[in-house]
Design a protein that fits this description.
By secondary structure, the protein is of the alpha/beta class. 34% of the residues lie in helices and 12% in strands.
Length: 206
């Protein structure tokens, strides 16, 4: 990995691969095993996710947009919507893929710092049960956010509780989850899993 004086948080794809990851890929690249989830590495990944996040299933995908689209599709029916920050990657930088492939509307919310709060989400819970209105079903957040801010454990727990009390699922885009884990006092436990969000992505990415 080339080390430069500049560290870019613009995208996790701006960074080189971590040497330990590269070494692990090299070590895995031997012999033959059954693929498509039956291989020991995928099984180890699933086990590791369970250790970190409890009773969850892991579905590895190739990139972040694919993870967001796959994750949100699993949560939504076509008449349902996703509430997200105006600045969220799903809203600004995925070429409309989440709306195209989930068939669901994104309801984007202006924020001061890239973070959603229960109050901001609540304002968008209008027309519930009205057959003419799209029905919010998921709230999507990014941890750490596109503006470089990080949800605290209390903020995550508060948002998750609000969502679950209102029949909403909480989706976490974890493109920068390693940065959030490094910056929060209790590390990875505070970043998403123990706050009972339903989907996360790339928990162990770089
Ligand atoms: C917050 C966030 N989500 C999703 C993505 C999409 O990842 P990919 O470019 O691998 O599709 C990125 C990429 O920078 C990102 O920063």
């Amino acid at each position: 990995m080339t080390t430069t004086a500049t560290v870019s948080f613009g995208s996790d794809n701006h960074a080189g691969i971590h040497p330990a990851v590269l070494e692990a890929i090299g070590a895995a690249n031997t012999g033959h095993v059954a693929a498509y989830g039956d291989d020991p590495w995928t099984q180890r990944l699933e086990q590791r996710f369970r250790e970190l996040l409890g009773d969850v299933a892991a579905f590895p995908v190739f990139n972040g947009t694919g993870a967001n689209v796959t994750g949100l599709s699993a949560l939504l029916r076509p008449h349902q919507a996703v509430i997200c920050a105006e600045t969220a990657h799903v809203n600004t930088d995925e070429c409309g893929a989440p709306e195209r492939f989930t068939g669901a509307k994104l309801i984007d919310v202006a924020t001061t710092d890239g973070k959603l709060t229960p109050a901001l989400v609540e304002r968008r819970l209008v027309g519930i049960g009205d057959e003419h209105r799209v029905q919010p079903r998921a709230v999507s957040i990014t941890q750490a956010t596109e503006l470089g801010t990080v949800y605290s454990l209390q903020e995550l727990a508060g948002l998750a509780s609000f969502c679950h009390a209102n029949g909403l699922l909480l989706h976490v885009d974890g493109a920068r989850i390693a940065n959030a884990a490094a910056s929060l006092p209790r590390g990875r436990e505070t970043t998403s899993g123990r706050s009972r969000s339903r989907t996360t992505r790339r928990q162990t990415h770089r």
